[in-house]
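Tokens as discussed.
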């Protein structure tokens, strides 16, 4: 774990409540929408590849794996520009 990621994880753990953690993630993740709740206490590797849309709740034992080779498969696809992880709500918005 890099010093920066360790610092981000410590700051995340200091936030009380899922909404406050989600607000903090707006400065780390690629994008975080409105009314997002984030329960995990660990910053994923390459958080800048994660986009959370509106009305999302991430449970405590969820892990985002951003360091596999899928970006080589999806790179250049119009439907998935830039790869990464995008979490939509049940309505797709």
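Sequence:
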């Amino acid at each position: 774990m890099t010093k920066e990621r360790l610092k981000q994880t410590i700051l995340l753990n200091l936030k009380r409540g899922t909404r406050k953690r989600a607000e903090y993630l707006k400065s780390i993740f690629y994008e975080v929408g409105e009314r997002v709740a984030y329960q995990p206490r660990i910053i994923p590797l390459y958080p800048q590849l994660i986009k959370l849309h509106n009305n999302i709740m991430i449970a405590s034992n969820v892990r985002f794996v951003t360091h596999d080779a899928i970006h080589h498969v999806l790179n250049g696809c119009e439907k998935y520009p830039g790869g990464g992880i995008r979490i939509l709500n049940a309505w797709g918005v």
